[in-house]
Specification:
This protein has helices at about 1-25, 45-60, 65-75, 95-105, 120-125, 160-175, 185-200, 205-215, 220-230, 250-255, and strands at about 85-90, 110-115, 130-135, 145-150, 175-185, 235-240, 245-250. By secondary structure, the chain is α/β, with parallel strands linked by helices. The protein has a domain at about 65-185 and about 220-250: 3-Layer(aba) Sandwich (Rossmann fold), CATH 3.40.50.150.
Length: about 260
């Protein structure tokens, strides 16, 4: 009997592994170009509000602010974190800025966010006094306007060519650093998100968009190549807990290096 149980367990595990391999090598081997419902221009204000409400729930559940909380202080240095002017590109309702501002305040730091998004309704929903309607591809700011430029799970909405422009613009308007976080394209995240969204009884469009988002996500080699095309020297690309991918780069570290 135990042999049968072992065989059943082995077959089940092998079947699950086979599904993941199929997902990885078939429709996750390359970025999807499928458009998300989230990005359609004809949505009503009520639909946009509902989408951002559900999106914010998912982001909070997946601790979307944690890569920034864990990564920024040791990288920038705690003294540099005491006061920061930060631009959030693709900020949506500004939830990341609100979350990180409060997190920094509890540590005695002052972080001021400027929230930029193409969607005026999203900024309105978030009640952002410092909200700026604008494009990540043509930032309406002078060179070196911010200490830090961040983007959270916005980059996958862009094509590869647009990503290069987005990063060039982010690098242009920062005085020091950029810290970009998005989805790492892999079958484990795809399966986890599918299960989580169904357990949450999320709206059908949110489920579909969430899965498309993973398919539009990135691998480290892809981001390294895009960073090189964007002309960002010393860019570090790494995975955060397997589910996200991070690009970070600093100008001040470059300027402190001895000339070769």
């Amino acid at each position: 009997m135990w042999q049968l149980g072992f065989a059943t367990t082995f077959a089940t595990g092998t079947g699950v592994a086979s599904v993941f391999l199929l997902m990885r090598f078939m429709f996750l081997s390359h970025r999807s170009t499928q458009t998300e419902y989230f990005d359609l221009p004809e949505r009503t204000e009520a639909e946009i509000a509902a989408s951002f409400r559900d999106l914010n729930r998912v982001n909070v559940l997946f601790r979307f602010s944690h890569p920034f909380e864990a990564g920024l202080p040791p990288w920038l240095g705690r003294m540099n974190c005491e006061r920061l002017e930060i631009l959030d590109v693709g900020a949506g309702t500004g939830l990341l800025g609100k979350t990180l501002t409060e997190w920094a305040r509890r540590r005695g730091w002052h972080w001021h966010f400027t929230n930029l998004d193409t969607n005026q309704v999203a900024l309105k929903i978030g009640g952002q006094p410092d909200g700026v309607v604008g494009s990540a591809l043509q930032l309406p700011f002078a060179d070196g306007s911010f200490d830090l430029v961040v983007a959270s799970q916005m980059t996958h909405h862009l094509t590869d060519e647009q990503v290069v422009t987005h990063w060039r613009e982010a690098w242009r308007v920062t005085r020091d650093a950029i810290f970009i976080c998005d989805l790492h394209r892999n079958p484990g995240l795809y399966a986890l998100l599918w299960l989580t969204l169904h357990l949450m009884r999320a709206d059908r469009t949110i489920i579909e968009d969430g899965l498309i988002s993973v398919q539009r996500g990135f691998r480290r080699s892809e981001w390294r190549a895009l960073a090189a095309r964007a002309g960002i020297p010393g860019a570090n690309v790494w995975r955060y807990h397997g589910a996200r991918i991070v690009l970070q780069a600093r100008k001040k570290m470059l300027s402190s290096m001895p000339a070769s």
